[in-house]
Amino acid sequence: MEDQFQRKIEYARISVTDRCNLRCRYCRPDHQEILEHKDILTYEELLQICEMFCRLGIRRFKVTGGEPLVRHGCLSFMRSLKQLTGVKQVTLTTNGTLLRPEISKLKEIKIDGINISLDTLNPEKYQKITGSYQLEEVLTSIDAAWEAEIPVKINKVLLPEDTMEDLWPFVERFMEKRKIPVRLIEQMPFGNQKVESAVLTGETILKAIRQSGRSAAKLDTAFGNGPASYYRIQGAVAPLGLIEAVHGNFCAECNRIRLTSAGWLKPCLYSPPTISLRDLLRSGRSEEEILQKIHKEIFEKPVSHHFGEKPSAEEMYRIGG
C-alpha cells in the first residue's frame, strides 16, 4: 500500500524479543526493563499480524530482536512466516554469537539473507563495546553462512572514536577476501541521549579511500531493502554501503514499518509507537477492524524523522534493529 506521501510501504521489521545476550553500549541502557514473557507477542500472534500486513501489501520481512536467536522457536517462526501467502522475502538480523549452530537449519528453510551486526575486528575493542569475548564465534558464524551460500551483509555502527584504521580490516576481510558487503551506519540519538560527533562520516570515508589511491564509484544497484548508498571500491569484490539516517535523510524513500516484540506498531523509527496490536488481538477485536486500524496508521506515517533537531525518546533495544 501507499502512505499519504505516495511512498510504497512493502517492508516490515518484526522484533521477536527485547532480550539480548550482548550489552552494546550504544543500544542498551544501564537500567533496562526487560518484558515478561506474557507481555510479548506469541508466535501465533506474530504470524496473525504478519498475515494482515501481507493483505496490505507488505511482501518483505526482517526478523530482529534484541537478539532474535535467544528466543526459543525463532527458526520455526521464520519457516512459517516464509510460507504465508504473499511473502516474497524473509531475512534475519543477528549479532552472530548464536548463529553458527543454526546455519544448516537456516539453509533448509531457505532464509533469504542474514545481516550480522559487528562493530570491530579488534578483540579488546569488541569486549569494550559488547561486554563479551565472543568475537571469534561471530567470525566463525560469518564464514559458515558464507560457505553455506547464504547471502550475508555486515552492519557496522560508526562509533565516535573510529578511524580509518578501524575500517580497513572490514574492507580486507569481507569485501576483498569474501563477497560480503559491509554497511557503515551512522549512529542515531535514542533514549533522549545526544550522540558524540563521529570522526568518520560518509564523506570523510570516501575521501580517505580515494586518497589511498583507490576509486570509489557510486552504484545505482540496491543490495537489499534498506536505504544504503552503495559504492564499488577498487580491489573489492563486494560493495561498501553507507547508511546516514541523520545527515543523509532518506525519509522520502522510506518503505518500512516496524512491529515491536510487545506488539506496538511503529510506522516511523524516530516517532513513538502508534497502536498496540497485541491489545487489539487480545481484546477480541475482529481481524477486519484491526486491519483497518493498521491501514490508517501506515497511511498516516510521518513525512520525516527529527534526529537532526533532537534525540528520539525511544529506546533502541525496545524497537528492534
UniProtKB/TrEMBL annotation:
It catalyses: GTP + AH2 + S-adenosyl-L-methionine = (8S)-3',8-cyclo-7,8-dihydroguanosine 5'-triphosphate + 5'-deoxyadenosine + L-methionine + A + H(+). PROSITE patterns: MOAA_NIFB_PQQE, RADICAL_SAM. Keywords: 4Fe-4S, GTP-binding, Iron, Iron-sulfur, Lyase, Metal-binding, Molybdenum cofactor biosynthesis, Nucleotide-binding, S-adenosyl-L-methionine. It comes from the Bacteria. Its EC number is 4.1.99.22. Residues 4-228 form the Radical SAM core domain. InterPro entries: Aldolase_TIM, Elp3/MiaA/NifB-like_rSAM, MoaA, MoaA-like, MoaA_NifB_PqqE_Fe-S-bd_CS, MoaA_twitch, MoCo_biosynth_MoaA/MoaC, rSAM. This is GTP 3',8-cyclase. It holds the Pfam family Radical_SAM. GO terms for molecular function: 4 iron, 4 sulfur cluster binding; cyclic pyranopterin monophosphate synthase activity; GTP 3',8'-cyclase activity; GTP binding; metal ion binding. Its cofactor is [4Fe-4S] cluster. GO terms for biological process: Mo-molybdopterin cofactor biosynthetic process. The keyword Cytoplasm does not apply. It comes from Candidatus Anaerostipes excrementavium.
